[in-house]
C-alpha cells in the first residue's frame, strides 16, 4: 500500500485514498471527512477505515452509542464479514457521511476588500459568482478568479463537491475584461502607445496591453491594480524604471520604458508590507498616493477649491476650449478615473450620439455641475469618478458636461440647450440646490427619452439609473435596428432589381445596336456589290465599244483567236492581223475579264501575252493566222 509523505499534496492523498476504497461505497465528501479526521495522514486513515469496515470494537461501540443530533456525523457499519482483529488498538470512528451537506468557506479578495461566504458543497459555482457579483458590482460575465484552482473551471454549473475543494478557500477575484477597458482608455488618449507584458499571480498568469504614452505612472499603477484584483497596498512591482519609482507624475513616455514591449512583474506582499527597494508598491487611491509620496519622492496636491479655479472660464471662449478646460480641471480635482468628456459643443455631442445608424447610436449623458452645491464634491468623488461608472459611461454613453456655477455660463447653456433640444418635457435648467445632476437623453425616431440621475445618489443608485436607462433605450434601439435592417434589405433588393434591370436593358441595347450594325453592314455590302456590278457593266460597255468590228469570214489578212476562259468555255473571234494587242485585251475585258484581274497566256511557248506591248500587232506578236490563248486569274 502506498503511504503518504510530507511532500505529497492533499489532492494526491485524496485521489490515492479514493482509489483504495473505490468499491466501498464511500463518496467524495466521505473520503475528505475521513482524511480530515485523521489529519490527512494516509496510512492512519486507511488503517482506521479498514478496521471500521471490518467491524472493529470501535465500530461496535459506535453502533451502540446513543442517537446523535442531526448536525453530528453518523457512524455507519459497513462490515462485510465477522472477522476482526481484536488485538488491534481502538481507532477513532470513521466519519462516513452527515445528514447536513458539508459547508465550504470562501474568503474572496477584491482590491482592498475581503468578502466571506459559506456554501454547502451541493451548490454550483454560479451561485458563488452571483453572490460575489451582487456584492462588488461586477457582472458575472466579467468575473474571473486567480490564485485558486477554481479559475480553471469553465462551466458555471459545476457543483462545488465535484471540484474537491478544502473547507477553507482563499480566492482572488479580478475583472476579466479590465485589460480591454485599459485598451479602450488608451485609444482615447493622444500620443504614442507603449506595450507592456504584465506578469502576476506568481508569474503564472500574464497579459499584454497597450498604454498611451501620455498616461502617468500613477494612472498605470491604478489600472494594473484593476487587472490583478490585488489591493495596491499588497503589491510590489518589479521592472519599473528608476525615474518612475521616484516620480509618479511622469508620463509613460517620459519614464524610460523599453520598447517595443516592457515587462512588469506584480508580486503580492502578504500583510501589506511596503517595499522600499527598487521594487515599488502600487498606490491606486488618492489616500494611498498620499501615503506613498515618501517612496516616490513627490507630494500630492490638496484638492483644489473649484471657486478658485472655475471648471469653465467666465470669459467668452468657444465650446471646444471651454470643455477642454472643464476636463482638465475636473481631472485635476478628482483624478484620472473620470469618464471621457466629449470635447465640443452640445450640438456636436448630440450629433455624435444620435446622427448615426441605429446600431451605432448611443444615449447622451449631460452632466451639469455647480461648485457651490453641497452635494457636488460627494457626487463627483463617489459617482462621476467611480471606476465602474466611468467605464460604463465610456462604453455606453456620449458624455458632455457643463458648469452652471456662474450666471454667464448658465445663460450660455440655456441658449445651446434650447437650440439643440427645443422644449423637452423635462427642462434641464435647475437651481443650485438641485445640482449636480446627470441628464440621460436618448433619441428614438423624432422623440426623446429623458431621465435624471440626481446628485444625492450613491454609486450603486447612479449605476442602476445608468444601466436601467440603457436597457430601456436598448429595447427601443433594437426595434430601430430591425427597422433599419429591413429598410436596408428593401433598399438593397431594390438596388439589385434596378441593377438587374439596367443590366438587362444594357444587353437589349447592345443586341439592338449589334442588329442595327449588322443590318447597316449588310446594306453597305449589298450596295458595294451593286456598285461594283454597275461599274463592271459600265467598264464592259466601254471596252466593247473600243473593240473594232470583226472581219468577215472570207476576208484576207485575218487571224483567228480562240480564248479559253477559267470556266472552260471557249470564245473565238476574228481580228485583222494588223489590229493591236489592246484590241484583244479590250475584247476580253468586255466579257468581264479585266486586265487588272486577269492575264492572257500563250500555251506554247508559255508566255504572258497581256504583259506585252499593247500597241503591238497580232502579226508582230506571231499570233497569226490563228492562236489559242488562256485567260487566268491573277494571284
Shape: elongated
Indicate the structural class.
Answer: alpha+beta
Query: Percent of residues in beta strands?
Result: 15-25%
Main pleated sheet: 5 strands, mixed
Taking the alpha carbons of the first and last residues, their distance comes to: 114 Å
The total strand number stands at 20
| Uncertain parts | 1-7, 56-99, 177-186, 271-308
Could you report the average pLDDT, rounded to the nearest whole number? 76
Strand order of the largest sheet: 8-7-10-9-11
What's the number of helices?
A: 18
Which percent range fits the helix content?
25-40%
Give an overview in words.
The structure is a single chain. The chain has helices at residues 10-20, 28-37, 42-53, 57-63, 125-136, 178-188, 217-228, 242-246, 252-255, 286-291, 293-296, 319-334, 346-354, 376-384, 387-396, 407-421, 459-546, 581-590; strands at residues 73-74, 97-98, 103-110, 113-120, 143-146, 168-175, 193-200, 205-212, 235-238, 261-268, 280-281, 364-369, 398-403, 437-444, 447-454, 558-564, 570-576, 598-602, 607-608, 626-633. The protein is α+β, with helices and mostly antiparallel strands and 635 residues long. Strand 3 (103-110) and strand 4 form a beta hairpin. The radius of gyration is 52 Å and the shape is elongated. The chain starts with 9 loop residues before the first helix and ends with a strand.
